[in-house]
Amino acid sequence: MKTLIKGALIVTLLFSQPLLALTLNEARQQGLVGETLSGYIAPVRQDKEALALVKSINEARAAHYQQLADSNNISVDEVAKLAGQKLVTRAQPGEYVRGINGQWMRK
Prior knowledge:
By secondary structure, the protein is an alpha+beta fold. The chain is built from 5 helices and 4 strands; from the N terminus they run H-H-H-E-E-H-H-E-E. A 4-stranded mixed β-sheet has the order 2-1-3-4. Strand 3 (96-98) and strand 4 form a beta hairpin. Mean pLDDT is 86; it is low at 2-20.
């Protein structure tokens, strides 16, 4: 019985969604998402997996920006914009960034 349960658990872990999920770096390299000056990522293409990743990453960033804003007595928007400038600057060659004109461009 224990062997059966262990086997089922292993099969479940092997086929679970998080293991198959797209990472942020993979999505950037594949041109699915890009950095914006707002401090959040945005989808370059409307792919279901990329949209889910964008939502997840942006929620985590928003929470982190809120913590930084609270500890530094500045607005969340200020933190996000500062982060956005740094993230766009640090984007790797070939990755997408959204310019001030709202258009996507490859670095």
